[in-house]
Amino acid sequence: MDCPYYEQLQYAGDTRIQALISLYMTGDDRLAKNAIESLNESRTPDGLTQSRYPSFLPQYIPPFSLLWIGMMHDLWWYRGEADFLRQYLPGMRDVIGWFESRLAPSGLLGRLEWWDFVDWTKDFEDGVPPQEANGQSAILSLQFAAILREAADLESSFGSAEKAEHDRKLAAFKLVVLLPLLAGVVVAFLKKRGSMYAPLIYAAGIAVLSIRAVLPRFA
Fold it and tell me: Which residues have CB under 8 Å from 93's CB, separation 6+?
């Protein structure tokens, strides 16, 4: 749950952060498990989870389905819980399959259905990052690449070694495609005096590559 006043729904994006705080500060994984289970129960026939659940009004934010996988990885990273998480591997594969089927020939994600929310900022209309008519969003593609790496960790630990290898190769390919693009964007924005975007984009690219190297794992 976001908070008891402004938001009274369990959005995957907010819940992942709150679950991490709970796991790290208290070691209590009950709410994290409940969120993973609840969002899994919201799954549509094509594989996506709803953006928030339980809710009588369906809403779909495809990147939040990726964050649901991230919640699984967080629980495994800090608590293990392979026996609990194993039952959700088929759903995780369905989410990845949904995104993989929407890759463009460039290697980036094509245009996605529903609401491609990333963050509330004046430069993102309705929270959606700028993209071409056929998609090609660097931010959304980086999110997919990051989650592919986390899904590969789960597959390696208690799933399929073959699927882990597939996810890692796909993530590596996407990063190879994206990093020159990000470098070009950084250079372009650095040429604009006072631009606030260049350091943020650079930091985002570095974070995707380095976060696994600096976060400790607590079993």
Answer: 163
